Structures are given as C-alpha cells and as structure tokens.
Amino acid sequence: MRADAAAERTTAHQRAWGWYDWANSAYVTTTGAVLISPYLTALARADVCPGLESGETCDADLSILGLPVAVGALAPYTITVATILSAVVLLFVGAIADRHPRPVRLLGGLAWTGAAAASLMFFLQGSNWQLGVVLVVVANLCFGASTVVYDALLNRIAHPDDRDKVSSRAWALGYLGGGLLLALNLGLMTAHESLGLSYGMAIRLSLLSAGLWWAGFTLIPVLGLRRIRGTTATPVDRRAGIVGGTLVQLRDTFRELRSYPQTLMFLLAYLFFNDGMQTVIASSSLYGIEQLGFRTEQMMITFLVVQFVAFGGALLFGAVAGRLGAKRTVLGGIVMWTLVVAFAFFVPRGAFTTWLLCAVLIGMVMGGTQALSRSLYSQLVPQGRESEFFSFYQAMERGTSWFGTLAFGLMFQLTGSYRPAILVTILFFVLGGLILTRVRVREGIAAAGNEQPRIV
C-alpha cells in the first residue's frame, strides 16, 4: 500500500530532495568531468614513460591483464569497466530499494561509500594509476546506485504535473553547486604557488574537496526525507529473504517488461542519446587538454562556464517543457547536442575563445535535456516499482555510459587522435533521437497505470 501521497508531495520534501543534485554534482564536475581523466592519464604516463619531458609523447602501452592499452585510452576504458559492472549491480540495487523499509537510509549509505572513494583519491600520486582505477570504479558505481534510489523518490514527492519543474530545479541547483566548488578549486590551483602547494597537491586537494562536499551535503536529503518509508506495493516473500526475494523480483520484472513497450522504447532511445551526452561530458577534459592543448586551469574555466550556463539552461528547458511538453523539448535538445559536437570537431588547437563558445552551447542544452529525460521517464514507471525501473534508467545514466566511452576509446586506439573519437558520438545522438520520436508517451503512461499529466 502507498503512503499518503499528500503527506509526501510537500514543498519541504521537494526542496530536501533537490539537494542531492547539489551534493553529487561536485564529484561529477570537479572529479569526473575535469580532473580525474587527465590526472589518471598523467599517472599512467609516469609509470610507463618515467622522466618524460613536457611536450614529449609517450609511445609505450600499459599492460592490463596481458593486453596492451594505450595510455590515452586508460581513462575511458576505466569508465567503461565501471559501467559494465553497474549494468548488473544497479538492477539489484533497484530491486532491493523497492523492498527496503528505509529507502532514504539506503541512499545515504550508498552516497557516503562513494564519497569515501572519491575522498581517497587524495592519495593518488606518482605512478599509482592502479589505485586510481579502483577508486574511480567504486565511486562511479556508488554514484549510480545512489541515484537509482534518489531518482525513484521523484515519483513519491512530486505530482505528475510538477515533475518537469521539480526535476529541472534540482538539476539547476546541482549545476550551481558543482560550479561553486569548481570555482573554489580553480582558485586553489591558480594560486597554488603563493599558498606553498605543489601543482599535484592542489589537484589532490581538489579531488578530496569533491568527496567531502558529496558526503556533507548528502545529510540534507537524508534528514529532510527521513520520514519517507518504503512502499509495500511490491510483495515481499519473507521466506525468500532479501537476496532470494530480490532475484525473484528481478525475474518477474524482466517477464513483465513486455507489458510496457513504450517504457522499453524510451529506455532504448535513452541508451543511445544519453551515452552520447555522457561520453562528451566525461571525455571533454581529455579532448581539451590532449587534443587542443589547453591547460587544466583552462578546462576548469570551461566547466565553470558550462555549469553556470547550465543553471539557467535547466530552468529554461523546464519552462519550455511546460508549454511544448517534455518529449518535444528533449528532441530539440538532442538536435542541439548533435550540432555542438560537430562544432567541437572543428575547433582549432589552442583556440580557447572558440572552445568557450562551444561550452556555452553545451551548458544551454545539457541540464535541461537530462532533467526532462528523468521526469519524462518517471511518468512511464509502474507504481511500487520505481527504484527497480529507475535502475534500468540509471544503468544508462550520466557517468555510467559504456557504449559511448568504449567507442571513444577504440576510436582513439585506432586513429591516435581524439577528433574522430569525439565525432563518433554524433551517431548516438542520431539513433537516440530517431527512436525517441517513436515513443507514444501517453500510451506508456496508461500502461503503467499512472495519472495522465496535463502535457507531455
């Protein structure tokens, strides 16, 4: 049985819920998008090419399980491994969350485990890229798992007509928080000499700050949503236990997915266009530093521009969706993504002003597309199975794409250039957009047994 919807769909709950976007965006921005890929690449380069002078290339490969791996492909491959693991683990997390009596406590536990891994990145130095790989996998896995629980709570705290607005505001808050910490870390890295710090120490302190920020601000949603209890809409067989019951539930869910063809169609579309977005986000710092020759500080400025523009972009897309519907607005965002990636391919090496224009365009479209995808999918999820269905969604969400990062890494491995690697993401946007046009949203909402919103 559902808890009283009126008691859960309160302004206080919606505000507390949105703070988790603020909390985890620090890790996504400072660590995931800006620092960890080039830093992990630098650690690996120091291992296989010790004593390499600035500007010199490293032609040696890493050896991982006996396989040769180009130094420049290590970071995208690491994200790929984390995502493949997530694709399995997140399904179990979603099923467990639907059966958990205190889903908000589960959210906190997963978030704080990921934050601990992010904080431990402070100890990465020298040539210790192996520890970095492990910590990135753990942090990304926990990030995805916590977001499964978090996204599913949107159905509990917001009416169908309010979800686009609530989701967009939370995304906007996340971009503001991620941008604020990134600005502080940019100041730290710029002034590291006057503070008596080495450049490496400044990077490590920035990595630490992202983990601590994630952990600290997670307290707000955990405390603010503490009265929300698990739903009993999913039957519990106590004789089967948590593990056995979860396996039974997953088996039943895979069987029942055939009853929700529009939900499946949306997930397939999201698999492609979100993989394109996540690959661009995760690989942009690598592209900017290695291909275009920008410094780390310049990439931090780039992401500051993206973050603060995305704050307004998320709110703008939310307002547009209120008039045109989420599906049409997301499709427009996918078209814009395709054009921006094509533009980025032609940015000349060292042309930082042109690169910043690209950042402004990405910021306009990024937050709104992600926020509205989340709220649109929430309409297609059956009641009582929110976490389980959002686990499918989250397996394809930000920081957990793997088709895109794998294609990006393979393209670099084959060509030795990041330009064709970034261009391959256009294929994901085109396929995702074409499939999304075929999704009949209102039919999917009816099949899931949900209340029809005024506009979709």
From TrEMBL:
Major facilitator superfamily (MFS) profile domain sequence ranges: 264-456
Subcellular localization, as worded in the UniProt entry: Cell membrane
Single GO molecular function: transmembrane transporter activity
Pfam family, one: ATG22
Membrane topology, record value: Multi-pass membrane protein
Signal peptide interval: none
PROSITE patterns according to UniProt: MFS
Keyword annotations: Membrane, Transmembrane, Transmembrane helix, Transport
CC terms in the record's Gene Ontology section: plasma membrane
Main location: membrane
UniProt entry tagged with the keyword rRNA-binding: no
Acetylation as UniProt keyword: no
Highest taxon of source: Bacteria
UniProt xrefs under SUPFAM superfamilies: MFS general substrate transporter
InterPro entries the record matches: Atg22-like (IPR024671), ATG22/LtaA_families (IPR050495), MFS_dom (IPR020846), MFS_trans_sf (IPR036259)
Parts of the chain that traverse the membrane: 74-97, 104-123, 129-150, 170-189, 201-223, 264-287, 299-322, 329-346, 352-372, 392-412, 418-436
Record-given protein name: MFS transporter
Organism from which the protein derives: Ornithinimicrobium tianjinense
